[in-house]
């Protein structure tokens, strides 16, 4: 039944709406694996994490999360880059591989390189019968059901959910991941989808969209840019706000659109300052925040939640924005041109 669209116009929309439930199910079929995963990560000397596309963005969230809440360093490696740095890995290394399909050739290659150098492989994967699980010591299942839309949505938040569950164990509850609260807050954001659909109309004639976010929101800005590129074919770029002055500010003018990811946490004030700098150059600013500000031309309100959970809550309006902007631009949100759901060639 999972592979039917039901009442939804597209699989992508259905999969976006499934997220409040799918994050709850993440890892639930492999609870034991989560615990052994956490036990090993806790004592690991050298930790690496890899993935491609959206899965790499989830890997970056993991890097920020473990550093912030557990003082644990994880090196994030883009899977297709691993071949140039085989010496990263040795017999003290643990490589965590993230993949929805478990079949991406780049991910499998990175895993093989690490394994040949003696590394141990842990994976977080949706398809438990995939090639990736066969080369892993431990695999945790995303358990989110088939994802048909080429642009990853629910698999991303399920990857985050598994990562947060592991981090909660490793970082001695510092993460404070209240999954029920996170789920119900995502539902609240989905309820504002008609407002988000209206805002998506302003992106119709955009040729460039910038997304800024700092700290753990930087990987979300990268994921936002990826969704916008895949679904709308509009050029989109994710940036940490502090880097604007080192180059990208030169691009800002009255034709620019900027999405500012600005939840009420330790990044708030710095990000608001960046938003003002952009606004002063005439750009249109869309703010995603629980706090209203005159700097936003359009405000997408998100509910306030405990600090660590904001990534789950802020990606939802961005997925909806990209989906509705795709409809405005008459592209096919489920099957973007030139892309495949699972890339099994290098
Ligand atoms: C393809 C898809 C992306 C996906 C990436 C990694 O490029 O189009 O949506 O993020 O592969 O896929 P994986 O199955 O390894 O997570």
TrEMBL record:
It comes from Nitrosotalea devaniterrae. The lineage of its organism: Archaea, Nitrososphaerota, Nitrososphaeria, Nitrosotaleales, Nitrosotaleaceae. It is an enzyme of class 2 (transferase). It catalyses: D-fructose 6-phosphate + L-glutamine = D-glucosamine 6-phosphate + L-glutamate. This is Glutamine--fructose-6-phosphate aminotransferase [isomerizing]. Keywords: Aminotransferase, Glutamine amidotransferase, Repeat, Transferase. One of its GO terms (molecular function) is carbohydrate derivative binding. Catalyzes the first step in hexosamine metabolism, converting fructose-6P into glucosamine-6P using glutamine as a nitrogen source. The keyword Protein transport does not apply. Residues 37-176, 199-336 form the SIS domain. GO terms for biological process: fructose 6-phosphate metabolic process; protein N-linked glycosylation; UDP-N-acetylglucosamine metabolic process. The chain holds residues 241 to 586 of 586 of the full protein. Its EC number is 2.6.1.16.
């Amino acid at each position: 039944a999972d592979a039917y669209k039901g009442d939804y116009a597209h699989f992508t929309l259905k999969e976006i709406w499934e997220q409040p439930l799918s994050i709850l199910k993440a890892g639930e079929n492999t609870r034991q694996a989560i615990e052994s995963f956490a036990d090993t990560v806790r004592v690991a000397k050298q930790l690496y994490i890899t993935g491609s596309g959206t899965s790499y963005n989830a890997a970056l969230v993991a890097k920020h999360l473990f550093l912030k809440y557990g003082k644990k360093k994880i090196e994030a490696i883009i899977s297709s880059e691993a071949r140039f740095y085989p010496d990263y890995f040795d017999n003290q290394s643990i490589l965590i591989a993230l993949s929805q399909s478990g079949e991406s050739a780049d991910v499998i290659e990175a895993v093989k390189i690490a394994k040949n150098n003696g590394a141990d492989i842990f994976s977080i994967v949706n398809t438990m019968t995939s090639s990736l699980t066969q080369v892993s010591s431990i695999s945790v299942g995303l358990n989110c059901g088939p994802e048909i839309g080429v642009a990853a949505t629910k698999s991303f938040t399920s990857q985050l959910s598994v990562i947060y569950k592991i981090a909660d164990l490793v970082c001695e509850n510092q993460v404070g991941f209240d999954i029920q609260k996170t789920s119900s807050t995502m539902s609240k954001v989905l309820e504002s989808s008609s407002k988000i659909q209206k805002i998506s109309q302003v992106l119709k004639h955009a040729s460039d969209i910038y997304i800024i976010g700092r700290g753990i929101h930087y990987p979300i800005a990268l994921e936002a840019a990826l969704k916008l590129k895949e679904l709308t074919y509009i050029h989109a770029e994710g940036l940490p706000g502090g880097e604007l002055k080192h180059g990208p500010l030169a691009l800002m003018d009255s034709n620019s659109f900027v999405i500012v990811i600005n939840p009420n946490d330790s990044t708030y004030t710095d990000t608001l300052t960046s938003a003002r700098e952009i606004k002063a150059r005439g750009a249109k600013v869309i703010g995603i925040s629980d706090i209203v500000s005159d700097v936003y031309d359009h405000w997408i309100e998100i509910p306030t939640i405990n600090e660590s959970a904001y990534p789950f809550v802020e990606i939802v309006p961005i997925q909806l924005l990209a989906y509705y902007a795709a409809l405005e631009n008459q592209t096919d949100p489920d099957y973007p041109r030139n892309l495949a759901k699972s890339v099994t060639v290098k």
